[in-house]
Write the structure tokens for this entry.
Amino acid sequence: MNYKQSKILLLVSVLTLVGCNYSQRVAAKPGQQQDVQTTPFLLQKQAKSSDLATSLTYKIETFNSQVMGASRTYGVSLPPGYEQNPKQSYPVIFLLHGGHGNPSDWFLQNKGEALKTLQQLYITGKLPPSIIITPDGNDKRGSSPYRDPAYIDGPYGKVSTAVGNELVKVVQSRYRTLNNPNFWAIGGLSSGGWGAVNVGLHNLDHFSILFSHSGYFQDKSGPTNSPISYIKNIPLQAQKRLKIYLDAGTSDMEEIEESEKFSKVLKKLKIYYVSRQYPGSHTWQYWREHLADSLTFVGQQFRSADNPKHS
């Protein structure tokens, strides 16, 4: 080996050592590792198609509610690839049932059939993979066809706190969630539509995206649990952060009127909202068909929160 070849070999060796040392220093930076764990959609955009094609499932879980003084149940459907991506955290969506309902309603065949809708939205990219939670919204009296669930802190239990605060903390402790309220949505159908908006407005430190199918916004318990009144009293900063979706079937005259009145208040307060009317009535067929619309709206808000410069 001549002198010139020796110099080239020495230079290559030095550059290799420097490059290795630089790579080790970059990989060891704690700040960069934290970015990987807390950037929700950068990784999700690279989700494997095999994960997205995996059939979704759900199960019913329990937790001890101190405010209700009893064990409570909730349904949960984890996003595709959850087990395969242990460093990934996810947004959360609460779906509330309506009258004479339970946590399984949104998942059951001939009722919500939400897993079909979710899988299609994940595959098409309209909704980033999310943790879906279906709380028990019934009070201490239980479920009854003669009354709606009371999504309030009232004489039959602190249901609003149990769902909007206590269960939120349980979910945060049990699953890998993004804990920024911009990545938490709560919605429901009928009395669960009212309940979602009411619970969300009373727990603005946890939720910023609210949606309602065929809901109402004035409750007989009074203005504290009537979103059309209560929303006027929340802090201005919270109003600016809120994103609200409403829809109702054109044959659902009372709910159409409720949505129109609430929309006028939202417009006056300059709260971001979308209000839609579709053919249909107060039925599971209507709610099944339009769950994709509300969750597409939710997906848009999640993406905007993840990339605010392009929202």
User: Anything to note?
Assistant: The chain has a mean pLDDT of 87.
